[in-house]
Specification:
By secondary structure, the protein is α+β, with helices and mostly antiparallel strands. The chain is built from seven helices and four strands, in the order H-H-H-H-H-H-E-E-H-E-E. The protein is globular, with a radius of gyration of 21 Å.
């Protein structure tokens, strides 16, 4: 077997040595193993930017008992049909699903700032195209607040469910939604830091808001567009 010296950054070398030691492997064998995995990804058309997001999404999906390989279009169709028959139940379920995911995300990203930075390492949560977060520090008698804006191309039903999902994620970070609006696929949420759940709050979170207008059947479901509203 031909051997060849490969020079790497000192920090990377230290990290490799530490990981190899923690697994009871030699640096030589451990380095060859991870290079072999990466090369298999590249050989099948992948790239280095896909490896970490794919692993992270897969791990989170397992943690919340998610279902892999389910076409998004099928989920969207089921959501829209269920929304017409029982919107309150469906919105409550989406809130609860968001909270369960948020509890797992908080282990990896303890603060909202960490989460915002870490979202680049995750595959799309609700077909979002852009996420904007503005934070307002609290005063002596007020709690910190945030303004969240999520731009999507979803129909009103799907965006309403997406909004409740995001509210659930925020609740895991102890932020309680005080206002939520869904318009033309854009979700806007105002939330205040609330470290303790107010007495009497339902297990599934705040009550669902008004049901959005039923969409035009010709509206594209989650179709990408080159135009983004400011």
């Amino acid at each position: 077997m031909t051997k060849q010296d490969v020079y790497i950054e000192s920090n990377t070398a230290q990290s490799l040595a530490a990981q190899a030691s923690s697994r009871g492997k030699t640096l030589y064998s451990f380095t060859n193993e991870i290079l072999d995995v990466a090369l298999r990804v590249f050989g099948q058309g992948g790239n280095e930017n896909e490896i970490f997001p794919a692993w992270k999404t897969s791990r989170l999906s397992k943690d919340i008992e998610g279902t892999p390989f389910l076409p998004r279009s099928l989920v969207w169709k089921m959501v829209e049909r269920l929304y017409r028959s029982d919107p309150e139940w469906l919105l409550a379920e989406w809130f609860d699903a968001g909270r369960r995911l948020g509890e797992r995300l908080r282990v990896l990203h303890p603060t909202l700032e960490d989460l915002q930075a870490g979202l680049s390492g995750l595959q799309s949560l609700i077909a979002e195209r852009r996420i904007e977060v503005q934070r307002k520090p609290g005063g002596r008698e007020t709690q910190p607040e945030i303004q969240l804006r999520v731009v999507t191309d979803l129909t009103p039903e799907l965006a309403a469910c997406g909004g409740r999902f995001v509210e659930g994620v925020l609740s895991a970070y102890s932020f309680r939604s005080t206002e939520s609006r869904v318009k033309a696929g854009t979700i806007e949420i105002a939330a205040v830091y609330s470290p303790t759940r107010p007495a009497g709050d339902d297990e599934k979170g705040p009550k669902p808001r008004a049901r959005p207008r039923h969409p035009d059947p010709s509206h594209p479901r989650g179709r990408k567009s080159s135009h983004v509203n400011p």
